[in-house]
Design a protein that fits this description.
Pfam families: HMUDK_hel. InterPro entries: HMUDK_hel. It comes from Desulfoluna spongiiphila. The chain folds into two domains: 123 residues, no CATH class; 150 residues. It is an all-alpha fold and 321 residues long. The model has no long low-confidence stretch (mean pLDDT 93). Helix 1 packs across helix 14. The protein contains 14 helices and two strands; from the N terminus they run E-H-H-H-H-H-H-H-H-H-H-H-E-H-H-H. A two-stranded antiparallel sheet has the order 1-2. 32% of the residues are buried. Helix content is 51%, strand content 2%.
């Protein structure tokens, strides 16, 4: 039986409401200053993702610039390569650097050794990997013959994914969970990354699965769930996320919160998973005595100089106001 920790769980619902209100205020006012968008000092001071994963800056760049910009130039194999290569580093500036040096990235011009040399030069000046995900570079398969972590990831991408057999399996996968299973069998790709990459590939037109059909809880989401629930009994963390989705309207009414969704699209399991992770961070300040794992929030909010002109996967059929 699920036992909710009421005093913590209500902040999960609150976070979703207030963070979404900030999104709409910023989108409507084109205002960068968080303090003018919310009276919540925690949300003003610290960095939090959007309620909807697709609205975050890196996801928006992926959708607009990597997937849908000149998409007719790319065959499905190109699309898979572009999405996974971008997401391995998960940094906009790394992708821009590579395309400036290589031109439009396609399978035909994917030279892992040359790209590795380019990144070897790049890493002398600045990071090439995002700090958002923990990217391991240690595995017995790649214990010799490689110096840099990016070399190993590029070789893994080229040999373990971008071969005809795996590409065909990806394109012919019948569910989000099957796509996840294909990816998790690759070196370096654990459960969390396999799920994230499956969602990213699902933004394209070559794959189309319901985001509510499968979820995998990451470490941050697990911490958030442990704070919001006293006991989850026999249920998995993924079950808790699905339970949250199924009972969202009940809990909003119970705690007195409202929510303006994304142009008619309700948050899906990936979004609710992310919100548990963000609630864990929020509660580190709001309820500091409720300790599960990390004790402080590391990243402060920093305003960006450029606005996001939002684009969502056309297959979602969202009508922007």
């Amino acid at each position: 039986m699920l036992r909710i920790r009421e005093e913590a769980f209500k902040w999960y619902l609150y976070f979703m409401q207030e963070r979404m209100n900030i999104f709409w205020e910023r989108n409507n006012k084109k205002n960068h200053f968080m303090s003018s968008l919310t009276n919540d000092s925690i949300l003003s001071e610290y960095k939090f993702t959007n309620v909807y994963r697709v609205c975050d800056r890196v996801s928006q760049y992926l959708v607009k610039n990597v997937i849908y910009s000149d998409k007719d130039k790319f065959i499905p194999k190109d699309q898979i390569l572009r999405v996974l290569l971008f997401k391995i580093f998960n940094r906009i500036d790394t992708w821009q650097y590579l395309e400036n040096r290589l031109g439009t990235i396609k399978f035909d011009n994917f030279d892992e050794k040359y790209i590795s040399l380019l990144l070897e030069e790049r890493i002398k000046k600045q990071p090439i990997f995002s700090a958002a995900y923990l990217m391991t570079g240690t595995h017995s398969t790649y214990s010799s013959g490689f110096i840099y972590k990016h070399e190993k990831w590029l070789h893994m991408l080229k040999t373990e994914i971008m071969n005809d057999e795996i590409v065909d399996r990806i394109l012919n996968s019948r569910s989000l969970s099957e796509l996840y299973e294909i990816l998790i069998n690759c070196t370096f790709i654990g459960p969390f990354l396999a799920y994230q990459y499956a969602i990213d590939l699902n933004y394209t037109e070559i794959i189309n699965f319901d985001e509510n059909s499968f979820v995998m809880a990451g470490i941050g989401a697990i911490r958030g769930i442990k704070k919001c629930f006293i006991d989850i009994g026999k249920y998995s963390y993924e079950d808790v996320i699905k339970y949250t989705a199924d009972n969202m309207e009940f809990f909003r009414e119970k705690y007195g919160y409202s929510f303006k969704n994304l142009y008619g699209r309700a948050p899906t399991l990936i979004d609710l998973q992310n919100c548990y992770c963000e609630t864990d961070k929020y509660l580190r300040v709001k309820m500091p005595d409720l300790i599960v794992g990390n004790k402080r929030i590391k990243q402060k909010f920093k305003r960006k100089s450029d606005e996001i002109d939002f684009l969502f996967p056309p297959k979602w059929n969202l009508t922007l106001d």
